[in-house]
UniProtKB/TrEMBL annotation:
Domain of life: Archaea
Cited SUPFAM superfamilies: Pentapeptide repeat-like
Entries under InterPro entries matching the protein: 5peptide_repeat, PA_immunity-related
Protein name stated in the entry: Pentapeptide repeat-containing protein
Organism whose genome encodes this protein: Methanococcoides vulcani
Listed Pfam families: Pentapeptide, Pentapeptide_4
Amino acid sequence: MKYQNEEFEAETFKDIDLTYVSFKNSRFIDCDFENCNLSNVDLDNTKFQDIRFKNCKILGLDFSKCNDFILTFGFEDSFLSLSVFSDLKLENTNFTNCQIYDCDFVNTNLTRANFENSDLKNSLFRNTNLSFTSFRNAKNYDIDPNNNFLKKTKFSIPEVISLLNIYDIELE
């Protein structure tokens, strides 16, 4: 199936290996990706509107290359690694029950995003708006409160103590 320069609406992509496929200049509207491998997919000028990724492997994707007009997607029970979400407006985006390793969220608006029950090992948050965002039961996040905007951001104990990592203090 050809994916470059195409339009897909209300389609489900299930159990497909899309490694190194090009989505360049394509439009995906109201589509579901289930149990798919999306490693190293070319997202240059890709339009995602109301897209759901469930149980997917997402490795090495640069979402900042997407067409950002009405860019809306969400992730559930997925593995995301070495992917870039920088400089995007991702308000209300779900990243629930995910493993999010070594991903970049620099200059990203994540207002009201949901990272509940996710593992954010080595992911970078800098100059990121995390207002009203939920990190309930999330773990391994490293968020510097001095370099990100936090307002009514939700955290769980004991993981919230990681917000003190930037200070040279000892807790007993």
